[in-house]
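Listing S7. Sequence submitted for prediction.
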Amino acid sequence: MVRSGSENRRARIGKSLRVNEQIRVSNVRLITDKGEQVGVVPIQEALAMARQADLDLVEVDPASEPPVCRIMDFGRFKYKQRKKIQQSRTKTHPRQMKEIRLHPKTDAHDISYRVEHAREFLSQGHRVQVNVFFKGRELAHVDLGRAVLMKFVDALADVSKPERPPKLEGRKMGVLLVPKT
C-alpha cells in the first residue's frame, strides 16, 4: 500500500504515542487534563479516570519508569500537532542567491543605487553575489575592478560579511556576501 505525504505525517503523529488499551504496563505516572500530577496509579484506575472525563489516556513519556501518561483529547492533540507542523512549513521560505553586476568604470551613483538593492536583499536573508565584469582591455586593470568590489563590500559591512575574498574567474571577479546573524 502506497501512502501520500499527508497520510504518512498523520500516521507518524499517531504512531509515536500509545493510547488507552495500547498501554501495556501495570502502573503509570498520571497527569490529569488540567495538568495536575496524580502520582503513580494502576493502569485500570488511570483508564477509568480517562473514561470518566470522556477523554483518552495517552502515554507521553514511555522511556521513564513508570511511564508518564496524560489524560487528554487525543484527536484534538493530533490536530494541533499537524497544524503546528504545517505552520512551521509556511513560515520558512527558501533563501535565494541574488546577483549584482558591476564594471570597473561603474559610476559612484550607480554603485550606491546597487548597494541599496543589495542591502534590501540581505535584510530579507538572501545571499548576494557581487560580480565585476571586465570587457576588452579592462582585464589589464584588475586592480580597478578590485577597488570597485571592495568599495561595495565596505558599504555593506554593517549588514553583511564576505564569505571569501574577491576571486578572479576568467573575465569576472566576484565576492559572495552573506547576511550577518
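Caption to Listing S7: primary sequence and predicted C-alpha cells for the chain studied. The mean pLDDT is 86. The domain at 5-91 is CATH 3.10.20.80 (Ubiquitin-like (UB roll)).
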